[in-house]
Predict the 3D structure of the following.
Amino acid sequence: MAETTVTHTGQMGPRPTGWHGIAADWASDQRAFKNVSWGKAMMWIFLLSDTFIFGCFLLSYMTARISTRVPWPNPSEVFALRIGGQEIPLILIAIMTFVLISSSGTMAMAVNFGYRRDRRKTAILMLLTAALGATFVGMQAFEWTKLITEGVRPWGNPWGAAQFGSCFFMITGFHGTHVTIGVIFLIIVARKVWRGDYDTGRPGFFTSRKGRYENVEIMGLYWHFVDLVWVFIFAFFYLW
Amino acid sequence: MAEATANGLGQHPLHAGHAHDAPATGVAQAEVHQEHPIKLYLVVWAWLFILSTCSYLVDYFGLQGYLRWSLILIFMILKAGLIVAVFMHMAWERLALAYAIILPPILVLVFVAMMLFEADYTLLTRMTFFGAGP
């Protein structure tokens, strides 16, 4: 049976750390990730593959931006907003960044309260995270609308290199899709926590297996990843 | 129980994750639950705000050239590191998992180097055949 191969570290004495730990953990016919459940390991591996997807988007953006002869539109001016008769550069993007970071903070606290079996606080914090995520998507929709009315298209824009539009819609669109999916799953998991599914061991609707409070942490991994990707998009696309 | 503190952060004053002694259900017993004081998350949250403000100010004050690029990269790496290490609990995982997840994305830098050459070459040919800028 698969479960019997799980190594109980406590029975075998402390496992080696550092480089010896890596070799010992990966060597021989055994489970490589000693104290991580499959759910968590698989979420990490999914996030790794997602990293490559976003990595390729940012790479193609870099290649397009370097190889064009036409000047790149200045994102500082493109994403400026007029507030109180004054042009403030990049202000909407800055607010979006703070909203997403705040949602990451509430998510981290939700994971913490989940392990403390505080159902109420966990569910409320998760719903707060979802609300902040939805706010982020809303502001992104506003940003897209503004740029589209100003004439930005995947094949051209009024300010410079034509590739600007395609890179912008591709990268932020894919990220926004990730946030939207995250919001949906946050609401699903928050509902399960609120109902006490992880205490009563109610089977999930899709896998028919009992969930655990670790599901909140796995959900959190995905959510923090969405925030992490935004850190890179913010740096490379908006600030560079 | 062996704890997931296989690196420098292990000396952190917090208690690292501890395993719950659940009754034997056949499921992995060695799994570690991450429990840290809320204060840690609030401190990291505050730092993420500070770093984001700093990177925004780089643009607000219109810094240019290598100063701008290096500041952007520094703030980006610090933010990414904080999120992965603390929010995603990577600092308390065993090195086998951390290296399996963190090393492959770093290898993307090789791809970046390749595409830098490629893009410069494309620009060169475009300048040669179409002239410098419309």
Q: What stands out?
A: Residues 1-29 of chain B have pLDDT under 50 and may be disordered. Chain B touches chain A through 71 residues (CB under 8 Å). Chain B has two domains: 1-93, 95-134. Helices of chain B lie at 38-60, 65-87, 95-130.
